[in-house]
Amino acid sequence: MKKDRIGLKETRRSSRGVLRRLLREIGRDRAPLVLSLLLSVVSAALTLYVPILIGRAINLAVGQGAVDFAGIGRVLVALLVTVGVTGLFRYAVEVLNNRISCDVVRRLRIRAFGKIGRLPLSYIDSRGSGETVSRIVTDIDTVSDGLLIGFGQLLTGVLTILGTLAFLFWLSWILALIVLLVTPLSLFAARFIASRSHGYFLKQATLNGEETAFIDEMIGGQKVVQSLGAEEATRERFDAINDRFGRAALSAVFFSSLTNPVTRFVNAIVYAAVALAGALLTLSGVGGAAPLSVGALAAALAYATQYTKPFNEISGVVTELQNAMASLSRVFSLLDEPEEKPSKPDAPSLTEVAGRFDFDDVSFSYSPDRPLLKHISLRVRPGETVAIVGPTGCGKTTLINLLMRFYDVCDGAIRLDGADLRELDRRELRRQIGMVLQDSWIRAGSVAFNLAIGRPEATREEIEDAARRAHCDGFIRRMPDGYDTVLPEGGGNLSAGQKQLLSIARVMLCLPPILILDEATSSIDTRTEKKIRDALATLSEGRTSFIVAHRLSTVVSSDLILVMRDGDIVETGTHADLLAAGGFYAALYESQFGGKPKRRETP
Amino acid sequence: MKHLFGQLKRFRAATILAPLLKLAEALLELIVPLIVAKIVDDGIGGGDRTLIVRASLFLVLIGFVGLLFSVTAQYFAARAAVGATNGLRRELFRHATGLPFKALDEIGAPTLVTRLTGDVNQVRSGVNLGLRLLLRSPFIVFGALIMAFTVDARSALIFSVMIPVLFLVAFAVTLTTIPLYRRSQAKLDRVVGLTRENLTGVRVIRAFGREDAEVDRFRRESEELSSLNRFVGRISALLNPLTYVVVNLAVIVLLRTGAIRIDAGNLSQGELIALYNYLSQILVELLKLTSLVITINRSLASAKRIGEILDRRDALDSLPEETPDRATPDHVVFRGVSLTYPGAAGPALSGIDLSVGRGEKLGIIGGTGSGKSTLTGLIPHFLDATEGQVLVDGIDVRAYDTDALRRGIGIVLQEPLLFSGSVRDNLKMANPDATDAEMESALATAQILDAVNEKGGLDAKIEQGGRNFSGGQRQRLAVARALVRRPEILILDDSSSALDYQTDARLRAAIAALPEKTTVLTISQRTSSLRDADRIAVLDEGRLVGLGTHEELLATCPVYAEIDASQNADGKEGAV
User: Fold this and answer.
1) Residue A347 near residue A423 (C-beta atoms within 8 A)
2) pLDDT at residue A395 tops 80
3) Residue A64's closest CA among B40, B152, B263, B266?
4) Distance of alpha carbon A519 from alpha carbon A497, whole angstroms
5) Do the first three CATH levels of A14-172+310-338 and A440-511 match, i.e. the same topology?
6) ipTM
7) CATH classification of A173-291, choosing from 3.90.79.10, 1.20.1560.10, 1.10.3720.10, 3.40.30.10?
8) What DSSP line would sit under A288-309, residue for residue?
9) Chain A interface disruption, residue of B75, B226, B379, most A CBs within 10 A
10) Taking the domains of chain B in order of start, what are their residue ranges?
11) What is the pLDDT of residues B128-149, one digit of tens each?
């Protein structure tokens, strides 16, 4: 119990901290915010003043021959001015609020996006991209909708309620008291419906999630479903889920739609009470007070029509505010994530890299309880081609992560031309390395744009030349708009092999002194792969290259083969050495080629 | 839209009753100002306290009856909206699961999923809101207008000027903003895409040192989005204040003319209040209506997108049904088959002539994009050939009932997709009648029984996409799933690429040893996997460039020899 209370206090304190930070974020642009608040207060008050003026005008037109035209004229002029000013202020408030929220959204988004470029890869690797995207997009939108707009609505709502009561008091304290007494009823009604429908909404959301997951799986795997002839069975399962969802949705939709009728009914009670009491008061004053005027009654009735509306809005706004606070703290926690250590300002610039790599007793692990690379030492001479082979999970890709400084070593050091990688500027280092990964990344944009990612200033001729050397010029030309064909995010209809060819062309365009190919040709058929390998061989002439491959045919001609197993380098040597040694490599080779002495079959 | 109306027909009573009850409720609301006028003129004017009390109680009664009407209306509206859109979703799912491959590729799975989820939900809120308010709000507006005329026709003329002005304002503002909102949504999609790309492509972006360039790009896109939103905001912010000002201007005119008419004895004070109340009601309803217009508009767009899918009539070609000849020695025959995908520059297959004997083990090999999967996809009639015919058991696949044709075929697609559930669920999807023994024997043939038993046998849990199994295990489970259908034709589309040599060899041997005389077509990238096939078909850019045994092809088919050489790892060194 006590613990709970402390927890609650902490949340409250932290949410206050979050709010304060948002205000800081709005910071130098505080003027529009203050102006907007000021104008909403004024326009709420003026809006409430309008019925009073109207009531006054009605009072001046009692009956035939008893109309004070001069008085009405004055009131109408006042009314005209009030309405005009209210209209202007309302417009100004909306425009200001919209501007504030657009600015905050833009500023937070750009900051959060910039964060992506500085976060350590461990953060990005350990989370699905969806989570971070939703923080940068949905959460920031929720903040602007919920917090800024919601706060404005809350303020106007409260002001309207208080103002209504104040004006009613001014008209007649008895009417005000009556309205005040009925108020809890409308609060209770709104609360009751909200709590009932909340449960139904949760159920609806769960079932909706279940149905969406099913649709996602079955539509995504539709070809397999059809190949198994399981269409009808799938439909039956869908119908069952769909029916359950429908039942839950009916309750949720129905209960939540009760708010309006019920509050309207409460409003009808308020209205009737005001009409009754007001009319009686008009006939005779109470407690020595003068009788109420008809105009005042009209004004009081005008207030009563709108009285419960702000209650409705406030109950909606409170949930929105809670959501917005939750979103805001998620956004801030992203912005607060520790970043990669920046490079030292005195980091040497790399020119004329020879490409010698020294691994000195390198150890690495992603999590301290599971060591991955253990005490690896290795010399790679400039211009050598190094192949890394071994079963899945043996640490091949990790080695590449360390070379690119996507991760830093835990212990020991990797040196390039004698300089510790950690002393180098990351970008400077990466500029020296061309990397192709197994999962090719194709972004939305034209083919040429995709190829020129490493050298945006490259000419069309250079791009086409690189594509030719990567053997993708042919299929690119067959695409509807050739190099200008716009690809969707992920590459759309391109096969995995074609995407790998595009990734290779990207690197061909940059020609960096060091190459890293991590399963770069795994989806390319062996004949094309061989052609690419020949192209790469010319390319890697004089370039230090690291090649990770599952297919051993890819690595046989390497200068050095590292055989890895469980984070250790268990064997090193050339293909012939390793085969002769008859160790782990030889066994791997046999499992792929059946150990058949194929060389005898080749003429 | 017609699909939605078709679904709403199933809930005809609810669909008609919901707006009618809403109208009844609105009618009651329109009586209120009349009662107030009565209170003012007869109650206060005539000093009649009983009338005041009675009239007030009547107001509560009206409120209560209105509550009953509207609660019932809400229920019917919810029922019609949920029922009809659930039916729509069901219809759409049925349609989507019957789409041929070509249509599936054209539409794309993500689009279909969005139509089935987001769009249907959007339609639901539109129908629900529409049934409740679309009739009610205009009814109140025009009802108030008519009531105003019955109170005092001269004063009511003000109303008939104001209402068109208000509609004009509302439509001008919404119609200008709708396309702008659409543009802003498209821009937001760009921002989302850019963010996602930067996360999924983080390694490539860092490898090429493009972080700052990406931030600049994002800044540009965000600023464009932001200034567009500010622009739209400035327009849509007009709606509420303008409506407010116009209605109040009408009030001012009303008070002015009302005063003159009261002075002349043509209008009472109570009637003036009633007229004023009608104006207030109109204001409230119009504000509701404008927000409604936006929702309805979005729902209409969703309904249209759903309709586009449901209206697709992409059936596969069909011919009058014929009876297959199960004894013909040529099990599968391709006769002059060509196929060009829509929008493709060249044909995927051209002029294929090939016949596969009953019980033959045929290997198919060729480079990336040479047409291997297209060729095998023609056999279960997943696709239609652009030219030529495909025959199974002597008759054209188009002359089969598709289900009957596919029942005899087990095909393992390149992507070994497993569904969440148990191993048993997955196998039963392929053959609901399979016994445990049959399933286990299929698993054994596919060389995966031991691994499955380790994870708990047929009840072993499979996570979505088969995440908890390795690539090779997924491939073998997919093979078992095809085998459990006891197919006469088994098609393996590169289904052993993730298997090591020994497992692959055992799998091939087990399939060859199946008791039934199964015809097997195996696609592979590796010549070693096809070496013991009866014949191997070599495809190159959609053409059949070689057909024969491994040895024959090595001697006669340069493409095959080249493929083999590229895999014959130590060829070069061996020669030295």
Assistant:
1) yes
2) no
3) B263
4) 11
5) no
6) 0.82
7) 1.20.1560.10
8) TPPPPPHHHHHHHHHHHHHTTH
9) B226
10) 1-152+297-314
11) 888 888 778 888 888 888 888 8
CB pairs under 8 A between A and B: 450
Min distance A316 CA to chain B CA atoms (Å): 16
Q: Is 1.20.1560.10 the CATH classification of the domain at B1-152+297-314?
A: yes
Q: Please state, in angstroms and rounded to a whole number, the distance separating the CA atoms of residues A239 and B326.
A: 37
Q: Are residues A575 and B573, on separate chains, in Cβ contact within 8 Å?
A: yes
The alpha-carbon gap from A23 to the nearest alpha carbon of chain B, in Å, equals 20
| Homologous superfamily of A440-511 | P-loop containing nucleotide triphosphate hydrolases (3.40.50.300)
Question: Tell me, what's the pLDDT at B548?
Answer: 92
Q: Domain spans of chain A?
A: 14-172+310-338, 173-291, 440-511
User: What is the H or E stretch that residue A229 is in?
Assistant: none
User: By the 8 A CB rule, do A46 and A291 touch?
Assistant: no
Cβ–Cβ < 8 Å for A537, A526: no
For residues A372-398, one letter each, b for 16 or more C-beta atoms within 10 angstroms of the residue's C-beta and e for the rest, the string is: bbbebebebeebbbbbbbbeeebbbbb
Best probe of the A interface among B206, B253, B257, B502, by most A CBs < 10 A, is B206
DSSP annotation of A145 reads I
Average pLDDT over residues A442-452: 91
In chain A, residues with a C-beta closer than 8 Å to the C-beta of B211 are 117-118, 427
Contact B237 A95 (CB under 8 A): yes
Q: Which of B74, B276, B562 sits opposite A258 (nearest CB)?
A: B74
Q: Which of A2-6, A87-91, A309-313, B528-532 has the largest mean confidence? A: A87-91
With residue A376 as reference, give the H or E element that holds it: strand A373-380
List, for residues B474-529, the tens digit of each pLDDT value.
889 999 999 998 899 999 988 877 777 778 888 888 988 887 788 999 998 888 88
Angle between helices B471-483 and B423-430 (to 10 degrees): 40
CB contact under 8 A, B82 and A94: no
pLDDT > 70 in chain B, percent: 97
Q: Do A94 and B112 touch (CB under 8 A)?
A: no
| DSSP state, residue A370 | B
Nearest residue of B to residue A512 by CA position? B208
Q: Take residue A162 and report the two structure tokens written for it.
A: 């208080």
CA distance A15 to chain B (A): 27
CB atoms A526 and B563 under 8 Å? yes
Q: What is the DSSP string of B310-371?
A: HT---PPP--------TT-SEEEEEEEEEE--TT-SS-SEEEEEEEEETT-EEEEEE-TTSS
**Which chain B residue has the Cα nearest residue A295?**
B273
CA of B228: which chain A residue's CA is closest?
A102
State the architecture of A14-172+310-338 in CATH terms: Up-down Bundle (1.20)
Asked if residue B293 has pLDDT above 80, the reply is no
Q: A456 contacts in B (CB within 8 Å)?
A: 213
> CB within 8 A of A199, min separation 6: which ones?
none
| Of the partner residues A83, A557, A596, the one whose CB lies closest to the CB of residue B245 | A83
Tokens 């921002």, residue located: B191
pTM of the predicted protein model: 0.75
Task: Kindly identify which residue of chain B lies nearest to residue A138, measuring between CA atoms.
Answer: B192
DSSP A546: E
